[in-house]
Amino acid sequence: MHCPCCQTSTLKRARLDEHLAVHACQTCEGHWVSSYDYWHWLEWQPDSGKIKPCNSNDLSDPLSVSDNRHASFCPECNHLMRRAKVGHGIKFYLDRCSHCGGSWFDKGEWQQLQAHNIHDKVHLVFSESWQSQIRQAEFHRVLEATYRSALGDEDYAQALTVRAWLEQHPHRDYILSVLNQVPPSEDESRYVPVRKFQSRPVQKSQPQNDRPKQDVNHAPVAIGHGVHPKPYDYPQPAK
């Protein structure tokens, strides 16, 4: 098998963790984990507990990660691999083959996943529920940044305090009703009168006998060739 990142180096058999056999690239230091090897290793793993967010990690010696952002093909079945974001403060993506289920880890990615207890949840990263949680977290982060930009840090912190107090209040619905009411203003000059739409009266159709008669010219009309028809000129009586 050839490295999906370098595309020229040959992958050699190695061991990434206890009971986890992988194919390693000596050039880019990436690792290919087949689906069989991953599930076999997962059977030997105890529950690692909750996921540790990145802000709880010791950033004094951060782990270097080399994330390959180009499209890669599976070294086993040569199918295009799918990319999925890890989330939880981790910014790189994982590559997995949708056909055979194997996963590719760039340099330092496996160590980052171990530091945050996600290395035994790789199969969950590509699920719809995991990606939905990432999208919701990203939406709340953008919403919080918008509120902070509009209110400022001090007012935003005060608003959070009011919200926490309101959520625990037994008469929360009554308070929300009071806050949503708009009291009448004493200055009525700001109100712009609204013109009422006056609909035109509908004219009733007149009966056939009551309709006014139109003058009809009963003079005979001569139809010429190639000219418009015009009435005859009758001779006038002698004076």
Can you describe this structure in just a few lines?
This protein is 28% helix and 15% strand. The protein contains six helices and eight strands, in the order E-E-E-H-E-E-E-H-H-H-H-H-E-E.
Oligomer: single chain
Class based on secondary structure composition and strand pairing = alpha+beta
Low-confidence stretches: 56-61
Mean pLDDT: 78
List the strand order in the largest sheet.
1-2-3-6-5-4
- Give the beta-strand count: 8
> What is the global morphology?
flat
Element-level helix/strand string: EEEHEEEHHHHHEE
Structure write-up:
- This protein is of the alpha+beta class.
- It has six helices and eight strands.
- It has helices spanning 35-42, 109-115, 122-125, 128-151, 153-168, 172-180, and strands at residues 12-17, 20-24, 31-33, 81-87, 90-97, 103-105, 221-222, 230-231.
- A six-stranded antiparallel sheet has the order 1-2-3-6-5-4. A two-stranded antiparallel sheet has the order 7-8.
- Strand 5 and strand 6 form a beta hairpin.
- Helix 4 crosses helix 5.
- The longest helix is centred in the middle third of the chain and has 24 residues, at 128-151.
- The radius of gyration is 41 Å and the shape is flat.
- The termini are far apart.
Task: List its salient traits.
single chain; 239 residues; alpha+beta; six-stranded antiparallel β-sheet; two-stranded antiparallel ribbon; 6 helices; flat
How do the helices and strands line up, and which of them pair or pack?
Layout: E1 12-17, E2 20-24, E3 31-33, H1 35-42, E4 81-87, E5 90-97, E6 103-105, H2 109-115, H3 122-125, H4 128-151, H5 153-168, H6 172-180, E7 221-222, E8 230-231
Antiparallel strand pairs: 1-2, 2-3, 3-6, 4-5, 5-6, 7-8
Helix pairs in contact: 4-5
